Amino acid sequence: MQIQVVKSKIHRVKVTGADLNYIGSITIDEALMEASNLVEGEKVSIVNINNGERLETYVIKGNRNSGEITLNGPAARKVQKGDIIIIIAYGILDFEEAKTFKPSLVFPNENDNSLT
């Protein structure tokens, strides 16, 4: 049997932009992507702490150490600049492997989205 588990999580990061006129996705600072073990194009769930919205989209790589977290396309209607969100990616593992799997969890500075 296989189950879906949390693979990666960026916990409580500040939205720096919302671009309605972009194709779609979430742009994430490359340093945050690496720290949380996310790859470009990966499906993620977004949870908005400020308004309770939940949505799914895919990751686009942003400039390294920029702190960028931009929701693009229709997702831009679900957030506002300054909102605090959680970004979660899931993986499918065998049941026994899932018992010992350790996800990549990142807790950035909420003021500037840095890793320090």
From TrEMBL:
Give the UniProt family note: Belongs to the PanD family.
Q: Which GO terms describe its cellular component?
A: cytosol
Q: Which CDD domains match?
A: Asp_decarbox (cd06919)
What Gene3D superfamilies does the record point to?
Answer: 2.40.40.20
User: What is the protein name stated in its UniProt record?
Assistant: Aspartate 1-decarboxylase
Q: One Pfam family name from the record?
A: Asp_decarbox
Query: What organism is recorded for this protein?
Result: Flavobacterium lacus
InterPro entries in UniProt:
Asp_de-COase-like_dom_sf (IPR009010), Asp_decarbox (IPR003190)
What the entry says about post-translational processing?
Is synthesized initially as an inactive proenzyme, which is activated by self-cleavage at a specific serine bond to produce a beta-subunit with a hydroxyl group at its C-terminus and an alpha-subunit with a pyruvoyl group at its N-terminus.
Q: Which domain of life is it from?
A: Bacteria
Pathway(s) annotated for this protein in UniProt: Cofactor biosynthesis; (R)-pantothenate biosynthesis; beta-alanine from L-aspartate: step 1/1
GN (gene name) = panD
Quaternary structure, from the entry: Heterooctamer of four alpha and four beta subunits.
Per the entry, the cofactor note is: Binds 1 pyruvoyl group covalently per subunit.
